[in-house]
Design brief:
Rossmann fold, 321 residues, alpha/beta
Length: 321
């Protein structure tokens, strides 16, 4: 069994929890034992326990984000020690890019990054696919670093009271999470922030599209605080239009709607994203045209980035046929 150490910022705890869920089969099969600082017991010396686990782990996961890079402890202590052990060959370091950040100048930039090509987890339309990609690469790394089978030794006496208790009570599960509760304020805030992100995503993407592609012009119009429109022109002719609104009342309830017509009425739409409440986080669930994708991927919830990319792909579809 390989010990897997999570090095992460507490601001990324939700994403760390999701990755740990995806590692469930590796834990059940006895391939890994995952450890992070939330498993420290009351009365333990914080730095001492972390140092001991970091220095003994066979696999060290660096969960990379802007907050991770900004953390002096994560970057100056854990990353440096992890890279030392990687160079010594006593541990394998795997960098998991959770959110977009400036990782190119880091010591671990030369390593094979996960998910594939270092595309941040939150930039994938389906985060379950991103974490599955990470898990597959962890499996490959475990195979490359697997030690020879240990010799069968007779049982030995415990060396400490803690070890003695472990022998009496046996191993315990790391699945100690409880479902998080979300207030109405949490839900409203998430939907407002998701819509604002989608608006900024479209504005930036339209500018970049017009800059990169010859003969393409774009227009972004913020109609009001709850809606915007986008138009793409090729050689002066409009080839794709859309209207995106937040808070429209539909048969599916209130959500963020997409219409292929930039002059569509408030309640007219071709796709709608509703709030989806997960065990640990909030997300967005497509209810219209993209429902086939949702069924294909087991009703996986979309992040704000995934939702923005879904809508953007709908706008770009006429230009990519």
């Amino acid at each position: 069994m390989a010990t897997l150490f999570f090095s992460y910022s507490h601001k990324d705890e939700v994403l760390r929890d999701e990755l740990e869920v995806h590692l469930a089969m590796l834990k059940r099969s006895g391939a890994i034992e995952a450890w992070h600082d939330r498993k420290i017991l009351a009365g333990d010396e914080l730095d001492g326990v972390i140092d001991a686990k970091l220095n003994s782990a066979e696999v060290i996961l660096l969960l990379v984000s802007p907050d991770f890079l900004a953390s002096r402890y994560c970057y100056d202590v854990e990353v440096q020690r992890a890279m030392e052990r990687h160079r010594e060959g006593t541990a394998r370091v795997i960098a998991v890019i959770l959110r977009p950040c400036d990782w190119e100048s880091t010591p671990f930039a030369k390593l094979l990054l996960t998910p594939t090509d270092g595309k941040p987890v939150t930039k994938w339309p389906n985060q379950d696919e991103a974490f599955l990609d990470v898990v597959k690469q962890i499996k490959a790394a475990l195979g490359a670093t697997a030690p020879p089978p240990p010799a069968v030794l007779p049982p030995r006496a415990a060396n400490s009271p803690m070890e003695a208790m472990e022998q009496v009570f046996g191993p315990r599960s790391s699945n100690l999470r409880v479902r998080k509760s979300f207030t109405d304020a949490d839900r409203d805030r998430f939907m407002d922030e998701a819509f604002d992100f989608i608006a900024r995503y479209f504005e930036g993407s339209l500018k970049e599209l017009g800059h990169r592609q010859k003969g393409i012009e774009t227009k972004f119009t913020r109609v009001d605080p709850h809606g915007f429109t986008a138009v793409i022109y090729r050689d002066g002719k409009a080839v794709s239009r859309c209207s995106i609104r937040h808070g429209a009342t539909t048969a599916f309830g209130g959500g963020i709607t997409y219409s292929h017509d930039d002059k569509a009425s408030r309640n007219s739409y071709n796709e709608i994203l509703n709030l989806a409440v997960g065990e640990q986080s909030l997300g967005l669930e497509p209810m219209g045209m993209a429902s086939a994708m949702r069924r294909q991927h087991g009703k996986s919830h979309l992040s704000s980035e995934g939702a923005a990319e879904l809508f953007w792909s709908m706008l770009m579809e006429p230009l990519q046929r």
